[in-house]
Write a structure and sequence with these properties.
The chain is an all-alpha fold and about 150 residues long. It contains seven helices and no strands.
């Protein structure tokens, strides 16, 4: 943080405002990227330039921002041609977070099936199993009316 006071003055007691320099640090600028001296920062991937297959591949990145943005863009596009690759990624990717993103993307596209969820329910990663259970709820048979009174 480059400002001494980060709270908006509206939320600071008037008496306390008189004792603080609310503008202290306004001339310090911002740190946009930190990287070792003598090296170049990694290029920021242009996900908007990728086709659907490229976005699915980007879900397998170790970079959380990249996975989140790729998933968001796949959902914005709503391209069902991604379903096959997402189903494969959800079950065979070596990266647990990629499997999880693939599952959630399939759900967001309305293309999640029991055939994909079944192996995910026994995934080695607890987070993937937990989400597979959560995502499988709509696929369960509806509760019969008489069961509500039991």
């Amino acid at each position: 943080m480059y400002r001494f006071v980060i709270e908006h003055p509206q939320w600071i007691n008037k008496d306390l405002q008189k004792t603080l320099d609310l503008r202290l640090g306004h001339d310090k600028g911002r740190i946009w990227k930190v990287y070792p001296a003598g090296s170049k920062p990694r290029p920021i991937p242009r996900l908007d330039k990728l086709d659907t297959a490229g976005l699915v591949a980007a879900l397998d990145s170790p970079n959380g921002w990249q996975r989140d943005m790729a998933q968001q863009m796949l959902l914005w596009r709503g391209d069902k041609s991604a379903v096959g690759a997402l189903e494969k990624m959800a079950t065979v990717s070596k990266r647990p977070l990629a499997r999880l993103h693939a599952l959630c993307t399939l759900d967001g596209l309305g293309a999640l099936s029991a055939a994909v969820l079944r192996p995910c329910l026994s995934d080695a990663e607890p987070g993937v199993r937990r989400h597979a259970v959560r995502l499988s709820e709509p696929l369960l048979a509806p509760t019969p009316p008489w069961a509500r009174w039991c």
